[in-house]
Amino acid sequence: MRWSSALLFLTVLPATARAAESASMGAAMLQMSWALLVVVGLILAVYALARKRMLLGKIGGRAITVVELRPLLPKTTLALIEVRGREYLLGISANNIQLLADLSDPPKNPERAAADFETVLAQTQ
């Protein structure tokens, strides 16, 4: 309600300045200043509304976060996501999303991790 009355006031004020008989340089500057303030105010209002709409989906908390996306092919992507403290590696294609690995508990031994990767790779082929 307050914004609409302020906007109405700002749109009527330049009209009253134009109605004056002598259009001096000061009046023109005042009119230009008010018009600029109206445009900047509208831009800020639209930005605030857009930001509020974008945050509506995030009100429930941040249970799911995208850690990293790696495009492989034009329509294929690897996604590392975190869900409530657990990390998952997903394969995303044009037609489906598939869980590739649960990375919540990383192996302590890097050699075993390489062996596990080779085992998983061999099983998928």
UniProtKB/TrEMBL annotation:
Secretion signal, residue range per the UniProt entry: 1-19
Any one GO BP annotation for this protein: bacterial-type flagellum organization
Keyword Transmembrane: yes
Organism domain of life: Bacteria
Keyword Membrane recorded: yes
Coiled coil regions, renumbered to chain: none
Location within or outside the cell: Bacterial flagellum basal body; Cell membrane
PANTHER family: FLAGELLAR PROTEIN FLIO
Family listed: Belongs to the FliO/MopB family.
Parts of the chain that traverse the membrane: 29-50
Keywords: Bacterial flagellum, Cell membrane, Membrane, Signal, Transmembrane, Transmembrane helix
Official protein name in the record: Flagellar protein
Any one Pfam family match given in the protein's UniProt record, by short name: FliO
A GO cellular-component term linked to this record: plasma membrane
